[in-house]
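Quick illustration, no need to memorize.
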Amino acid sequence: MSFILALDQGTTSSRAIVFDRDGNVVSLGQKRITQIYPQSGWVEHDPLEIWQSQLDTAVEALTRANLTGGNIAAVGITNQRETTLIWDRKTGEPIHNAIVWQDRRTSDICNDIREAHGDLIRSKTGLEVDAYFTASKIKWLLDNLPGVRERAENGELAFGTVDTWLVWKLTNGKLHITDPSNASRTMVYNINTRDWDDAAHDLRCAASDLARSAFVV
């Protein structure tokens, strides 16, 4: 008999749930993750703790159900979608803590861009320009960590939300992917064309830097 393993990586904890073919819960594992507050309004997570906690809960759920990976037909991931990570493509090491969706450090950046280009970005992404979403977090990392923008432009770094990070780790770096539901929360995914927005990338305005920050990594 085959089973489904669901990974639920949330803001305060990671969970793993095994379901049978009829959708019944067979077993569950859960582990809390550390909240990091560098200063007022800033919220971060340790990417390696996110990964290890999710791995631990998956093992826990399988062990409780007396199953192995061979019994799992598919794995699904649900996650804190706007939380932002950048890591080294070769080593898999994060360059910084994950910036959590709750983090407000880029509010001033977003206020300026919203005033000048909010309608354009909304028409393409369906989102209001806000620090809640991913793009301005990427911009902050590229602008504030020494050497990071250059490394990104050289193709040395990978960007992702939590789903992408977990798939990268689960596949030992073979897959760098997401899906439309997660991509649509980055603020650089065009919901009309259902693809990364090349036009937004080329805009000669403040929004271009915000968009380009995501495209180069």
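The longest strand covers residues 25-32.
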